[in-house]
Amino acid sequence: MDSYSGKITRLAEQFASLPGIGAKSAQRLAFHIVSMPEENVSALAEAILDARRNIRFCKYCCTLTDEEVCPICASDKRDHSTIMVVENARDLAAYEKTGRYEGVYHVLQGAISPAAGIGPNEIRLKELMRRLQSEDVKEVIIATNSSLEGETTAMYISKLIKPSGIPVTRIASGVPVGGDLENIDEVTLLRALDGRVPL
Amino acid sequence: MDSYSGKITRLAEQFASLPGIGAKSAQRLAFHIVSMPEENVSALAEAILDARRNIRFCKYCCTLTDEEVCPICASDKRDHSTIMVVENARDLAAYEKTGRYEGVYHVLQGAISPAAGIGPNEIRLKELMRRLQSEDVKEVIIATNSSLEGETTAMYISKLIKPSGIPVTRIASGVPVGGDLENIDEVTLLRALDGRVPL
Fold it and tell me: Best mutation site among A14, A50, A52 for testing chain B: the one with the most B CBs within 10 Å?
């Protein structure tokens, strides 16, 4: 590998350590970087440092943001009495893209995973409970992933909230729109059957 | 997209402008960066700037390197009388990986492509001719790609060198090892037939 330049090799190694970038792509990226105009390279490096250094968690919903309060929590066009609980900011972004959800969020920054040693204290659950005490909340929608960790987290949160009397719901699980039944796993098929709704 | 943080969005846009990184991967990378330890992020940004700022072309073979002369041209273990001509440093790296080639290289930093407006003066051809005059070269092996541009470049170079009397060879073209004949294009099959060797 060191036949051309140690600096390119080191850069390729840096890229290869990022998720989803293999050795070949990392090398291609490194060669691309050295052939880019210098100001574009500076802009990339600056964006990397800037994002890492100036990011923080929203005071209310714990999502990643530049400000003390994220744009959604700061907006008076949102329904602050409905809180959707998601695992991370990417999931929040996915629901925001639908353009239909008008409530606010709570970002757990993870999910309970005994296997990975992540317990209720390692995720932003205390912050959620504090919100439920201080804010006037009418519904908590749990939108954690439909994985073992996501389901465990959903069950845990719903038990935790129940005594307060605030209604807790869970997003529906079933056959995805456009999904072909023959390609869908049995667990999902049974979930879809159990969750059937009258037409 | 701006529902979480403008800085993450800007970083994702930067990543998405790199080759082979789509919008989804760019977003995943951006979120990964903000969750990385700060020293790792600094190391990545530093490697990017360092590679771009301190890279130059080897005085002899024109490959990308940190020094005035690349490690291969500087090595006295290599056969400096055999020059393999390649299009770019990635191709050089591919042949270096075989561990069998003991000569040196010349990196054209491109290939002649009338369609893209790249003529013989846009690639490092003058530098090659200068080497052939000043060094004692016994063979020039042309290892440009087996594409239209690569073949055009190979023909052009061989004509240019011929008057000097230095032997010019071209790497073999044919069916790749492990290749299944039924999946190989006709041009390659005919090339393999034309280039058949006695057993």
Answer: A52
